[in-house]
Amino acid sequence: MLQLAQYVATLANEGQRIKPQLVSKITDADGKVVKEFGREVIDEVTAFDKSYWKEIQQGMRSEVSAFSDFPYDFARKTGTSQQVAKGQIRDNGVFIAYAPRNNPKLAVAVVIPEGGFGSQSAAPVARKIFDAYDWEYGLDGTPKKNIVKNMNE
């Protein structure tokens, strides 16, 4: 899963492969920052002309009902991978995406084992992840929790 998320982040960053981070900082019990982690580029794909990245991004426009009212333009691809388990072919739902399309903040990869089509199983899970991030941090830079908090004051 982490490799799949890193892959979609590499697409979002037009070939820059970023080191995955689980946290942005470590604090002590008093809230003092002990260590911070910044963006680290591991390597970069340079064999593509910029126009190829735009073409890849334009191709990431699958119709997904779970995102029908999503307020951001985002890049996404649904899919189904298969595996053989106990002699039967099993379909796994796959969904990768990043948002916003032109200023990516979050890349997401979801695989639902034996979930069938990715648009039906994995995409709704991804939507919840994007909504949670938007609430807490803001895909547009403004956390939605702050907007609701200010409206209630």
Structural description of this entry:
- By secondary structure, the chain is an alpha+beta fold.
- The chain has a single domain, classed as Beta-lactamase (3-Layer(aba) Sandwich), CATH 3.40.710.
- The protein contains four helices and seven strands.
- The termini are far apart.
Q: Count of helices?
A: 4
Mean model confidence by pLDDT: 92
Give the tally of β-strands: 7
> From N to C, what is the helix and strand string?
HEEEEHEEEHH
Radius of gyration: 18 Å
CATH 4th-level superfamily: DD-peptidase/beta-lactamase superfamily
CATH class descriptor name = Alpha Beta
Q: How far is the first residue's CA from the last residue's CA?
A: 41 Å
Going by helix content, strand content and strand pairing, the class is alpha+beta
| Biggest beta-sheet profile | 3 strands, antiparallel
Q: Poorly predicted ranges (pLDDT <50, ≥5 residues)? A: none
Q: What share of residues is helical?
A: 25-40%
Strand order of the largest sheet: 5-6-7
Notable traits:
Beta-lactamase; single chain; three-stranded antiparallel β-sheet; 153 residues; 7 strands; two-stranded antiparallel sheet
What is the structure about, briefly put?
This protein is α+β, with helices and mostly antiparallel strands and 153 residues long.
Describe the SSE topology.
Layout: H1 2-12, E1 16-18, E2 25-27, E3 33-36, E4 41-44, H2 50-59, E5 75-85, E6 88-99, E7 106-112, H3 118-136, H4 144-152
